[in-house]
């Protein structure tokens, strides 16, 4: 059952927030959806799933990205889930890069995280089924995200190419098994056996991708991003894309940092990129 928390008209469409009890994360989960003008059961629209980064909820992208005007024009719905399970019964840690707000889009295997921290299952299966059931959407889906959410979007698209028409990311963590954010999260959620980590690593997954499963991919990265060298490791993705001949466009931008100022500067280009595949 969906509980409607808010409904706000914007750019001729509607921004709505919902809560529901999740079978994947065993707690109430919140998500937001933008429905463009005219979306109805007789005029279904494609969906862009947006995965946010560390510390975010369903609200950061919706309030800061400035995506509604273009999404309304193109007739694309946008769905933004929360970034982790939440609540008093959900294990947490007093840090911004692990625990609540930092689910890393994996299915945790280690106690005490494995009851609730199943964001991979939630984003890949449960949420799209819920959206398909309750909203006027077609079966065309794209997936995008920022930072930890960029990792989630690319990784999920690489593992489930049949589910999506295209994928994109802003400032993604592309090689989490080799950066401090990823190593901290994966060691707690997945345990010390690093062979279980590679299934959630974009660079590793690129090595395994069949050419027939390649998806159109776009990445935008700010050159003044404080996290670029230590955490995001975009250069490792450049190498993989070249080695594998993966159809990814990686755009570096002088002067831009890691913030939503950067995302809002290029979100229209990402929506237009996805539009060309969603409407094909
Ligand atoms: N130092 C910050 C780190 C948090 C941060 O920068 N979060 C980013 C995502 S980082 C990678 O996933 C973000 O999107 N923040 C929300 C926003 O609205 O800008 C801290 O301590 O908070």
UniProtKB/TrEMBL annotation:
Q: Name one Pfam family in it.
A: Esterase
> Which NCBIfam families does the record cross-reference, listed alphabetically?
fghA_ester_D
Q: What class of enzyme is it?
A: hydrolase
Question: Which biological process terms from the Gene Ontology are attached to this UniProt entry?
Answer: formaldehyde catabolic process
**EC number(s) of the enzyme?**
3.1.2.12
Q: Which organism is it from?
A: Pseudoalteromonas arctica
Which Gene Ontology terms of cellular component type are present? cytosol
Protein family membership:
Belongs to the esterase D family.
Q: Which GO terms describe its molecular function?
A: carboxylic ester hydrolase activity; S-formylglutathione hydrolase activity
- Gene that this polypeptide is encoded by: fghA
Upper classification of the source organism reads: Bacteria, Pseudomonadati, Pseudomonadota, Gammaproteobacteria, Alteromonadales
Q: What does this protein do?
A: Serine hydrolase involved in the detoxification of formaldehyde.
Look up the coiled coil feature and give its residue ranges: none
* InterPro entries hit by this protein: AB_hydrolase_fold (IPR029058), Esterase-like (IPR000801), S-formylglutathione_hydrol (IPR014186)
Please state what the protein is called: S-formylglutathione hydrolase
Reaction(s) this enzyme catalyzes, per UniProt: S-formylglutathione + H2O = formate + glutathione + H(+)
Q: Where is the active site?
A: 147 (charge relay system), 225 (charge relay system), 258 (charge relay system)
Q: Which UniProt keywords apply?
A: Hydrolase, Serine esterase
